[in-house]
């Protein structure tokens, strides 16, 4: 997997978690075309980056414990002459 594919997968995961529409871990992995073990690896990496991701067995979805999300994009900076 190249870096762009990984960034796009991370963005998709972030959107689904924010919307609280991930489904169970198996369903979430299927939505991302991942094996369950690879899904858990990526989820762990997201948590290591500071994402407060929790799972609700009642709602059957992952969610952010605190409001926030990943922001991966290019930002312009003002250059001083």
Characterise this structure.
The protein has three helices and two strands, in the order αααββ. The chain is mainly alpha-helical and 81 residues long. The chain has a single domain, classed as Winged helix-like DNA-binding domain superfamily/Winged helix DNA-binding domain (Arc Repressor Mutant, subunit A, Orthogonal Bundle), CATH 1.10.10.10. Strands 1-2 form a two-stranded antiparallel sheet. β1 and β2 form a beta hairpin. It is globular, with a radius of gyration of 15 Å. The mean pLDDT is 90.
What would a concise description of this structure say?
By secondary structure, this protein is mostly helical.
Short descriptors:
mainly alpha, Arc Repressor Mutant, subunit A, 3 helices, 2 strands, 44% helix, globular
Helical percentage: 40-55%
Q: Nearest-angstrom radius of gyration?
A: 15 Å
Question: Which stretches are low in confidence, meaning pLDDT under 50 for 5 or more residues running?
Answer: none
* Strand line-up in the sheet with most strands: 1-2
How far apart lie the N and C ends? 40 Å
- CATH topology name: Arc Repressor Mutant, subunit A
Annotation field: number of helices: 3
Query: For the report, how would you describe the main beta sheet?
Result: 2 strands, antiparallel
Which sequence of SSEs, written as H and E, runs from N to C?
A: HHHEE
- The overall pLDDT, averaged over residues, is 90
The tally of structural domains comes to 1
């Amino acid at each position: 997997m190249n870096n762009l594919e990984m960034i796009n997968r991370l963005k998709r995961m972030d959107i689904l978690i924010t919307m609280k529409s991930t489904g169970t871990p198996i369903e979430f992995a299927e939505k991302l075309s991942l094996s369950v073990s690879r899904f858990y690896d990526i989820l762990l990496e997201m948590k290591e980056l500071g994402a407060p991701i929790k799972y609700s067995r009642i709602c059957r979805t992952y969610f952010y414990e605190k409001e926030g999300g990943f922001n991966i994009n290019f930002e312009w900076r003002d250059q001083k002459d």
